[in-house]
Amino acid sequence: MFYKIIKHLKESHIVSEIEIIELIDEEKVKILKLKVELKDKSHLYITEVHTINYQKYSYHWQNQTGKLLIRWDNSPHWRNITTFPHHKHIGSKVLSSSRATIDEVLREIENFMGAK
């Protein structure tokens, strides 16, 4: 799964650089942390943690100055969201969201960039 994420990033025309911060691929624990620089100099921070009983993810996209643009994650703190624990932050808004995939994240970022 993690190698699929890296492959999709490498194939994306909006990605300029990928920095692997942490990659653990063991039987009982899998961790992926990436810092991705995009063509417009914004950054996408990716965290995926998988164990037998636990899965956590975060796709955090911010502009050049560090301002949050969009974050997709499953931190269990927005219980009122219909897709709990999955949700999406757009600026200060918290919205329902399905489990984000790298393809969906890249597509949404690309659409956002194209709208500028």
Question: Can you give a write-up of this model?
Answer:
This protein has 116 residues and is of the alpha+beta class. The protein has one domain. A seven-stranded antiparallel sheet has the order 1-2-3-4-5-6-7, with helices on one face. A hairpin with a 3-residue loop joins β3 (43-51) and β4 (55-62). It is built from two helices and seven strands. The mean pLDDT is 93. The protein is globular. The N and C termini lie far apart (32 Å).
What are the salient characteristics of this protein?
116 residues, single chain, 2 helices, seven-stranded antiparallel sheet, alpha+beta
Radius of gyration: 14 Å
First CA to last CA: what distance? 32 Å
Most strands sheet: 7 strands, antiparallel
Low-confidence stretches: none
Overall spatial form: globular
What's the number of helices?
2
Helical residues, percent: 10-25%
Q: How many extended strands?
A: 7
Which whole number gives the mean pLDDT? 93
- Count of spatially separate domains: 1
H/E series, N to C? HEEEEEEEH
Percentage of residues in strands: 35-45%
Q: Give the neighbour order of strands across the main sheet.
A: 1-2-3-4-5-6-7
What structural category arises from helix and sheet content?
alpha+beta
What's the gist of this structure?
The protein is α+β, with helices and mostly antiparallel strands. The protein is built from 2 helices and 7 strands, in the order αβββββββα. The protein has one domain.
SSE topology:
Elements (H helix, E strand, L loop, with lengths): L1 H10 L3 E11 L3 E10 L4 E9 L3 E8 L5 E6 L13 E4 L2 E4 L5 H14 L1
Antiparallel strand pairs: 1-2, 2-3, 3-4, 4-5, 5-6, 6-7
